[in-house]
Design a protein that fits this description.
Strand order of the largest sheet: 3-4-7-6-5
Radius of gyration: 31 Å
Helix content: 40-55%
Structural class: alpha+beta
Largest sheet: 5 strands, mixed, barrel
Number of strands: 16
Distance between the termini: 24 Å
Low-confidence stretches: none
């Protein structure tokens, strides 16, 4: 149960931050955002704030921000259609009922001649069969009603597709960027608690019951020499010890301004085809705000490089489902991490956030990287790809990703439970 709670929290955090990036830049660009959703499928919870509905949905496999102009508008009011009109204080139309008109007896009914909800924002038609043609202006924030559900209209200048290319690019890129930023913040918190690894020739925390503690070495001892060999870094210390399993070594250390000579007999552990020496001491760490910020940035950069290297090996070394992990595999790995404490959970969450960002930036249909690819094509061509063609490519890509997720999930189940 503990693992499930942690998985839900991590998933919710990563997806919420990702989609919030899209939402934030979209709103700052003036794009109408109809829905901010965590998950897919049926709604579990929904609340409307201003012009955006915030929803929690049943299937925890992602999220989305539904922006006006990305997909065809929900309804098209056609000539000859009967509608019900409600007017605001300005005398302009503020609400248009499009069906089930019997539910709106107090509306002003109109047989539509023409309706423009995007450019000039007006509606014309006949209130009586033999009456004159009338014309009404429509408020910019008016809504139309479909099946008793209100939807705000989206004037052309509030649609995603009408925005400058740079604004659209930044809106899409903001999702993965927020995941990278989240990773940096989490790593900063992690290093603020754990300390930032240092290569100084000093000793870190002692492990109970191991030779270093039993011999009398202390945390923060400065190691000057081991067996008269000068130590310039923590890496020098570890390298020297690892090559001497079950050997006695004499440490020359500086503690509180005084020199001490301490004999330590290493233990050993298996490493590859042989054994290596260990004395049970962690590496030194630094504790400062600046060091934690530096560690957060460098650790995020490190995992970006490792993700890209892994993708390169996946592409060039032959595809194998065992190289991927789906929801079941991630759940199992999270359970192992949870059992090892909060610090590793923080580390794992930051890693997953980097992973989500890098994967989403791949130039594959249905991913943010695929959408950015179409924007780059538009930049090179000087005009956008036809919306129907782009939508078809993304649909095929989404179907492929869903199939891949099913295969990977089944492979995870076999590896964890059936073998």
């Amino acid at each position: 149960m503990e693992t499930l709670i942690v998985v839900v929290i991590i998933f919710g955090l990563l997806v919420s931050i990702h989609e919030f990036g899209h939402l934030l830049i979209a709103k700052r660009s003036g794009i109408l955002c109809r829905e901010f959703a965590i998950g897919f499928g049926p709604k579990i919870f929904a609340v409307k704030k201003r012009e955006t509905v915030y929803t929690l949905r049943l299937l925890p496999i992602g999220g989305y921000v539904r922006m006006a102009g990305e997909d065809p508008e929900i309804v098209e009011i056609k000539s000859g259609q009967s509608v019900g009109l409600y007017f605001g204080k300005s005398g302009q139309v503020r609400r248009i009922a499009t069906n089930h008109l019997e539910n709106y007896p107090d509306a002003r009914f109109l047989t539509v001649e023409h309706c423009d909800l995007e450019k000039d924002l007006f509606i014309t038609g006949y209130e009586e069969e033999d009456g004159p043609l009338v014309r009404y202006d429509i408020e910019r924030e008016a809504s139309y009603v479909v099946d008793n559900q209100d939807y705000q209209i989206a004037p052309l200048d509030r649609q995603f597709s009408s925005k400058p290319l740079l604004a659209r690019f930044l809106t899409i890129f903001a999702g993965p960027f927020m995941n990278l930023l989240l990773a940096v913040v989490i790593f900063i918190i992690y290093f603020s608690i754990q300390g930032v690894p240092s290569d100084a020739p000093r000793l870190g925390k002692m492990i109970d019951g191991y030779p270093a503690q039993e011999a009398g070495l202390h945390e923060n001892d400065k190691v000057l020499q081991i067996d008269n060999q000068k130590m310039n870094s923590w890496n020098d210390i570890m390298h020297y010890i690892s090559e001497r399993p079950k050997e006695q070594m004499t440490f020359t250390i500086e503690r509180d301004g005084k020199l001490h000579h301490i004999d330590v007999v290493s233990s050993q552990r298996k490493a590859g085809n042989g054994m290596q020496g260990v004395i049970g001491v962690y590496g030194p760490t630094r504790h400062s705000v600046l060091a934690s910020v530096e560690g957060g940035v460098t650790q995020t950069y490190y995992w970006i490089k490792m993700e890209l290297y892994g993708l390169k090996m996946l592409a060039t070394g032959g595809f194998n489902l065992d190289q991927l992990a789906g929801p079941v595999g991630i759940y199992h790995a999270t359970g192992q991490v949870v059992s090892q404490g909060l610090l590793l959970v923080l580390n794992w969450t930051a890693f997953l956030s980097v992973n989500l960002a890098v994967i989403n930036l791949l130039p594959l249909p249905a991913l943010d990287g695929g959408r950015l690819m179409f924007l780059l094509i538009e930049l090179l061509r000087g005009k956008p790809v036809e919306p129907q063609k782009e939508a078809f490519v993304h649909f095929i890509g989404f179907a492929f990703l869903m199939l891949l997720m099913i295969l990977v999930t089944w492979n995870d189940i076999q590896n964890l439970f059936l073998r």
